[in-house]
Every structure is written in structure tokens, then in C-alpha cells.
Amino acid sequence: MGHKAELNRILEALDATGTLDGLQSIIDQVCGVFGVDHAMYHWVDSAGDHYYFGTYPPAWIERYQEMAYVRVDPVVAGCYQRFHPVDWKRLDWSPKPAREFLKDALEHGVGNQGYSIPIRGPNGQFAVFTVSHNCDDEAWEKLTERYSRDMILMAHYFNRKALEFEPSRSPEQAQPLSPREVDALTLLAIGYSRAQVAKTLAISEHTLRVYIESARFKLGAINTTHAITRAVTLGFIVV
């Protein structure tokens, strides 16, 4: 319950921020949400400019650039080749340059475990959201199993906000809700129980659940409360 509330608070903060500095401030809080050592968001916009926000030590960032590690980093190659999340331990670390890179990263405190989510946007925009941690395989497996869906949601929230900073692009708009979805969220927002909403709309609770889940997906919300908050903020419902 505490995790969901904290995650919800960060997603709302992402919605509200209007500055690049705001993104750095928010990603500083991500580690606490997922219980990891580091979090990072990096994107390349449609003009080819690079932006980075994260908690890696400045010495590692400088070292990464100095050594041009982007050319040998298996995570970068893995994310470019895939559309789904990349667990670092499933990448090929056998080539000597990759082993040397990993040794250097560990010495700089990056962590021996990582989970990177590649995101492709319009006009060539590409981004990666990553969390990394130092722990054994069993603990990491439990952590990613518990939080992977929330990590993916977080990644897309960061990316949606990043797209607002594209000079020639307006912010992404949430998909419009259907009349039934609006009715369901409005009644829930004013305090009706699910049973009362279903009775008022003359539908089954199963059908109501379909409407709520559909609205939640369109709004990019982690739960019903977050969906209602997003719908109110965007003006889709009025309470």
C-alpha cells in the first residue's frame, strides 16, 4: 500500500513538472520507490541531442564518456535490438571489452544487477529508463518480479514528459474516454461503491470492471484512484 501511494505521488509530480530540473528532482526519489541503488533516464531527441537524468556517481558518468563505453556497453546494444525490458544478467558479457566495462562499472558503484526499459518515440526519439542495484540473483529476481510493471509505467511517464520538451512537438494527449468510462469514474469519484455504480448504470460489476480497466489503461494510471485523479486533472470528468 505504501509503495503504491509513493509511486502514485511521483507519477503525479511528473505530470505537474514543467522543467528539466524537475525531472532530475523526481528521479532522485525513484530509488526509494523500488528499493534500488540507482535510477537513470536517458533520451535522444529527434534532433539527435542527448539528455540524462539519474543517480549514477558523476565520476562514472565522466568515465563512461571518456572511455566511449557506449560502443561496448551490452545494455545499449541490448536496448537498441529489443522492444521489451532488458535484464542485464541475460545479456552477453563474454567479450573481453564487455567484461572490462562491467568491472569498471562495478568499481564505480553502478551495481551488479540492472533492468533497462527501451522506449521508441516519434521522429527517431529513443530513450532508456534503467534501475540498477547490488544484490544476488535471487533477491533481484524477486524485486523485478514485484516491480517490473511499475517500472515500465514509470519509464513511459518519464518519456511522455520528455517529449513535451521537444521544440517542435506538443505534449502527448491521453486517449479520450468513452461515455460509459466517464460515467463510471465520475460516480466512483463522488464516493459511490462499485456495487452502487453498477446498479446506477444498470450493468454487472464484471462489466464495470472492464470499463474501469479500459479507462485506467487509456490514462496510464496504476490504479483506480490514480485514474480518477488523472481524469479530473485532464478535464475528462468534473466532480
Automatic annotation (TrEMBL):
<dbReference type="Pfam" id="PF00196">
    <property type="entry name" value="GerE"/>
</dbReference>
<dbReference type="InterPro" id="IPR036388">
    <property type="entry name" value="WH-like_DNA-bd_sf"/>
</dbReference>
<dbReference type="GO" id="GO:0006355">
    <property type="term" value="P:regulation of DNA-templated transcription"/>
</dbReference>
<keyword id="KW-0238">DNA-binding</keyword>
<keyword id="KW-0804">Transcription</keyword>
<dbReference type="InterPro" id="IPR016032">
    <property type="entry name" value="Sig_transdc_resp-reg_C-effctor"/>
</dbReference>
<keyword id="KW-0805">Transcription regulation</keyword>
<dbReference type="GO" id="GO:0003677">
    <property type="term" value="F:DNA binding"/>
</dbReference>
<dbReference type="InterPro" id="IPR000792">
    <property type="entry name" value="Tscrpt_reg_LuxR_C"/>
</dbReference>
<dbReference type="InterPro" id="IPR036693">
    <property type="entry name" value="TF_LuxR_autoind-bd_dom_sf"/>
</dbReference>
<feature type="domain" description="HTH luxR-type">
    <location>
        <begin position="170"/>
        <end position="235"/>
    </location>
</feature>
<protein>
    <submittedName>
        <fullName>LuxR family transcriptional regulator</fullName>
    </submittedName>
</protein>
<dbReference type="Pfam" id="PF03472">
    <property type="entry name" value="Autoind_bind"/>
</dbReference>
<dbReference type="InterPro" id="IPR005143">
    <property type="entry name" value="TF_LuxR_autoind-bd_dom"/>
</dbReference>
